């Protein structure tokens, strides 16, 4: 794969620099849904307020802080761990106020508790070794996030609400979460293997893909916060 990129004139140095720039751009795109959340806060439902917090805290504040830590202090391990924790807790809070099944909400509580325990253990190992140890954390994060999204899809299919799905806020959040976490888990799982092989070109290429997926996630979050409350009248007319 590396040779095919070289034929296109893309060297490892170029991919490295492009990945760094795109990572900063991706982090800054979280300012869009965060700004919409702040602007429309009084009109947001409790579930979408969690989505706004998701965009603001682990998104805008911590993700941009992680980039500052990377470039200025050359250390962002603890901040990235906080991003993961914040994403799971706030996404779980949003779906806990969206899903109607008591059984699903109890299962969500148990899964979130397990995630926090694993997160604490791997954070301790990361700080002790001064290198990221988070494979199980990211696997659980992906399972929880995608599981919540599919639970919402199932709820929509079961209840068949009279709405336009492309403008339903939590449907947009669910689609964005599925795309981002499905793509990211492959990167997190393969990263240690690539590092062991010193495959720098492939590693930075995967980071580019992850940044693109994060931009896509922020786009879906922004649409969810933008459409909320704007289409209630229109959704009544959908047949």
TrEMBL record:
Keywords carried by this UniProt record: Membrane, Transmembrane, Transmembrane helix
UniProt keyword Membrane, yes or no: yes
Organism: Hymenobacter metallilatus
Transmembrane segments: 14-38, 50-69, 75-96, 108-127, 139-157, 169-190, 202-227
Protein name: Uncharacterized protein
